[in-house]
Amino acid sequence: MGAGHAHALYVHEHSPIHAASPEAKVAAVLLFVLSVAITPPLQAWAFGVYAVLLASALVVGRIPLRFFLLRLVGILPFILLALMVPFVGSGERIDLGWVSVSREGLWAAWGIIAKATLGAGAAIVLVATTEVPAVLAGLRTLKVPSVLVAIAGFMIRYLELIADEMGRMRQAMTARGHDPRWLWQARPIASASGALFVRAYERGERVHSAMMARGYTGEMPVLEERETPVASWLAVLAGPMVAAVVAVIAVVGS
Amino acid sequence: MTAAIEVRDLRFAYPDGREALRGVDLAVGQGERVALLGPNGAGKTTLALHLNGLLEPASGEVLIGGLALSEETVTDIRRRVGLVFQDPNDQLFMPTVAEDVAFGPANLGLRGEELDAVVADALERVGASELARRPPHHLSGGEKRLAALATTLAMEPEILVLDEPGSGLDPAGRRMLVETLAGLDVTLIVITHDLPFALELCPRSVVMDGGRVVADMPTRELLARPDLLAEHRLELPYGFTLAHD
Ligand SMILES: Nc1ncnc2c1ncn2[C@@H]1O[C@H](COP(=O)(O)OP(=O)(O)O)[C@@H](O)[C@H]1O
Ligand SMILES: [Mg+2]
User: Fold this and answer.
1) Which of A12, A20, B19, B208 is deepest in the core (most CB within 10 A)?
2) Number of domains in chain B
3) Cα–Cα–Cα angle for B148, B149, B153, nearest 5°?
4) Can you give the C-alpha Rg of chain B in angstroms?
5) Which of A156, A158, A214 comes nearest B104 by C-beta?
6) pLDDT of residue A90 exceeding 60
């Protein structure tokens, strides 16, 4: 990711979703993901409704489809894994000519892929329309324990720093004639990552010192509490509430 | 009057056995501004970490305002001694600069408007008000330095210890830093390799080498001693001359 920055996940736009309060958005994503997660794979129609809801969020949030699909590539490993399920699954088999697959396995694979895509999609919409500090503030307002929020914040903050450090190491190697274009050519990077972990560990100790130096005693101070108007909560939660109703119908009807 | 800082025969070794401090003695008066000089590895950072109780000496004593550093006094002493770290990335860990500046005073119990005012004031003193809502990792090296300084100023320390605050600053940022620091009503210890910077800000210089204090004299006098400077790997910029008065 070279000198890449946090902006990589954020779409600079002005849209109603960008403007909405972060805690409402975080809650909305949680509700949506929960609805998707509990829906039985056999209720295919429900997933159609979810997909329409997600697509409308992309339109309203002015998130380019290309941007969205590129970010979605991150779940590819899960999809590949899910595609193996029908081959190893048990129960009734369906003959595809040269190979037979398990019917149950097919449904399971479909469920995993549909849920992973929708869940990741919702998360992408959240971070594409909300800057990281606001997401963290949203979590705090939702009464997520401040220690957890702090840890999440540190992870994001220092992952970026480590990614930067890695980018710099890579540059230094490239400057001296190494050309790690593919992962499997990156042996020097792999050995350098040992150094990276040591640095990350020592960084952690120094950050802790810096916190102690400013009076940290093990409890993150809670800085601010803001109120979000009920109307704005409802506006943001409208889509996910539809999803929740669909999920309930799907669960009851199966 | 009691000294602001008194260090007596301080010794310290890192867990890997390296002796970083081998008997440091130092006294700094209230309101004094002292430059702490010396080659890389001299032990300057290690000494700074002791002044605020972040490292525990193997032997010797640290007294702040006459109060001996111990487990009972360490919280109080951390409030009185502000430490600005060598790498600002270690010091900026919150999602936004404003939250980072608020972290210290919030730990001291400040909240709401009072906290906001302290944060705004600290950022203004270093000329970094417009950085308030930015995430620290998007700042330039110099901006990070200013933000890190603000996080410490917000705690209103009586003693300010800065570890190489000038590196990464452009000339204007450096001048701003000198002016900001000169205007503070605190006892100041500045670790630096930048001798003109030391001369501008600190009438007194302490040179460390090999874990000991090897020279302690007026900065102007030190800069006129090429033998001492060379021996401890200190260098004036090319073409620099001391104005005579
Ligand atoms: N965390 C550490 N672990 C082991 N040795 C260290 C550590 N930090 C510093 N040192 C060693 O202690 C000595 C003094 O270091 P330091 O106080 O950082 O010097 P300075 O700030 O003057 O450059 C050096 O020899 C350094 O290598
Ligand atoms: Mg140092």
Assistant:
1) B208
2) 1
3) 125
4) 18
5) A214
6) yes
